[in-house]
């Protein structure tokens, strides 16, 4: 059974940083692209970033380019999202997803507020 | 960035059939956009129903099907059940960018 468990969310001040993690199990992690998707309160889903199986390609939505870095550790079956220079409009539930959103984690909440 | 459009809301009667569509500001949606469809209920993680236009996930009920219809991606629900009431999102690939539609709130009434 595919399991994706996000962690690392919380309350952070504007301009601060946060690192989200996603622990994957139940599938061959190193064989899949992985994605981050977010949902702001009362809003729809927004694709944030994805990363190729070996980490050699990374793509980001324009809204986070230059502030966010997606990475992975295939030895640890883990996906990461380093978020810097956080803004109020980054407030959202962040989901980790297998591939281009074949399977989803339960999400972790990030709140950016002073 | 492309804009992906969905009907904001639709209503279907129990046992009825409804088609949700997913359009692209760049032109016709094709299999090259690898359309995905997701069901999202409040307080839960989204669930993938359809990927790559028409492929079903292991848990996708048989009453859901995906296709291309009139230049759009389509999700058809045949024989709606009360538990199908939810928000439905489509997702399209634009090479290195992926864009979600704004979602369709489906009411079963």
Describe the model.
The complex is a heterodimer of chains A (114) and B (109). Helix content of chain A is 0%, strand content 51%. In chain A, strands 2, 4, 5, 6, 9, 10 and 11 form a seven-stranded mixed beta sheet that branches. A four-stranded antiparallel beta sheet of chain A has the order 1-3-8-7, with no helix packed on it. Chain A has strands at residues 3-7, 10-12, 18-25, 34-39, 45-51, 58-60, 68-73, 78-83, 92-98, 103-104, 108-112. With 109 residues, chain B is mainly β. Chain B is built from no helices and eleven strands. In chain B, strands 2, 4, 5, 6, 9, 10 and 11 form a seven-stranded mixed beta sheet that branches. In chain B, a hairpin with a 2-residue loop joins strand 9 and strand 10 (97-100). Classes of the chains: A mainly beta (114), B mainly beta (109).
The largest sheet of chain B, given as strand count, sense and whether it forms a barrel, is: 7 strands, mixed
Task: Kindly state the number of beta strands of chain B.
Answer: 11
In the predicted model, the low-confidence regions of chain A spanning at least 5 consecutive residues are none
The whole-angstrom Rg of chain A is 13 Å
Taking all residues together, what is the mean pLDDT of chain B? 97
Mean pLDDT of chain A: 97
What is the CA-CA span between the terminal residues of chain B?
Answer: 36 Å
